[in-house]
Amino acid sequence: MIPSSCRAAVVRQFKAPIEIEEVPVPREIEPGALLVRIETSTVCGTDVHLWQGSLTRKVDLPVIIGHEMVGRVVALGSGADRDSLGRPVKVGSRVVWTRTHCGSCYFCTSARQPILCENARAYMYENIEKPPYLLGGFAEYGYVLPQSGRVLVPDDVSNELASLASCAFRSVMNAFDELGEISTTDTVVVQGTGPLGLLAIARARVAGARKVIAIGAPDARLAIAEEFGADECLSMERTSAAERKAVVQAATNGRGADIVLEFAGHPSAFPEGIDLTRRGGRYTTVGLLGTGEVQFRPSLITNKNLKVIGAIGGEEKSYWKALDFLSAHQKRIPFHRILSGSYKLDDVNTVLQRMKDQLEVKPVIHMA
Ligand SMILES: [Zn+2]
Ligand SMILES: [Zn+2]
């Protein structure tokens, strides 16, 4: 039986304690929509920013917080019986889903970059008082909007890892698509050893990079970077920028890295990353969000003939690629090492505070 309401973590006021409230479960499922029982959500830095009121995107309070979730289908609107890859979706199927894209704006049609859709609706930003109410992750039920892509989760991928695929990992997959081909002769530097950086190390390794060099901290994270396939790990705490450059130069006959990917999130990563990239190389930035600024000499890009690529979010195909990668490589790569504490919905304030205090990497909330 589907209840008439369910428990959800609701933000009514920024920075204030979050309450678990009863939120209505919509009676009617529109054509193309899904109602799911959310089984697991992982927690993301963006959740903390939403709670603190520091996001640039409009938040229509009160909202259900959380946006990295996996759910099991409990009801389908008409015509919602296929996922975005055309595979059958039934009651009981596990899915992850994307923000919406309208299919009719300039970016959806002419530019064919629906990731930039001007009318996109994202989860955890919409008011719980308007139907369909359940547009956030830390809740017992969730509503998948008709214009959201949805991707079946392979049976052998756990809820925790599927949740990870629905934000962090799909962004990594999208970044590699934006970056383009990796050759077996390429040396790849990954800046940052948070969840995205670690996943990027695994992705670059599987792509056949000749050498993968990770830059990050603390040491415990660098140990995971090694397990994920980094050949060399450079500590941000124990090396200077000059020392890191010397290592990269030594690994590349003095040329610099063919490819540098940024997942560090600190503005200073940008000039360093450009400096580490060889002439004619490619630099991709993913983690640099927010309003941070840095001094930078643009002629470096010109003189090196660099390609500088920005990559944000990910479409259906990136969700699918992330899930498929987890399924294919989880026996060799210990993805679960990214996950940190395990919590219940009632622990939402504890887990967000711990996230804010950087005591967690990628905590997991189990709804049931
Ligand atoms: Zn996220
Ligand atoms: Zn659009």
Task: Indicate the topology.
Elements: E1 5-11, E2 19-24, E3 34-42, H1 45-52, E4 63-64, E5 68-76, E6 94-100, E7 141-144, E8 148-152, H2 159-179, E9 187-191, H3 195-206, E10 211-216, H4 219-227, E11 232-235, H5 241-251, E12 257-262, H6 269-276, E13 277-285, H7 299-304, E14 307-310, H8 316-329, E15 339-344, H9 348-356, E16 362-366
Parallel strand pairs: 9-10, 9-12, 10-11, 12-13, 13-14, 15-16
Antiparallel strand pairs: 1-2, 1-4, 3-5, 3-7, 3-16, 5-6, 6-8
Helix pairs in contact: 1-9, 2-3, 2-8
Bound molecules: zinc ion (2 copies).
Describe what this molecule looks like in 3D.
By secondary structure, the chain is an alpha/beta fold. It folds into two domains: 5-156 and 330-366, Medium-chain alcohol dehydrogenases, catalytic domain (Quinone Oxidoreductase, Chain A, domain 1, Alpha-Beta Complex), CATH 3.90.180.10; 171-310, NAD(P)-binding Rossmann-like Domain (Rossmann fold), CATH 3.40.50.720. The protein is built from nine helices and 16 strands. The strands form three sheets. Strands 3, 5, 6, 7, 8, 15 and 16 form a seven-stranded mixed β-sheet that branches. Strands 11-10-9-12-13-14 form a six-stranded parallel β-sheet, with helices on both faces. It has a three-stranded antiparallel β-sheet with strand order 2-1-4, with no helix packed on it. Strand 10, helix 4 (219-227) and strand 11 form a beta-alpha-beta unit. Helix 1 crosses helix 9, helix 2 packs across helix 3 (195-206) and helix 2 crosses helix 8. The radius of gyration is 21 Å and the shape is globular. The model has no long low-confidence stretch (mean pLDDT 97). The site of one zinc ion has 5 residues, from loops.
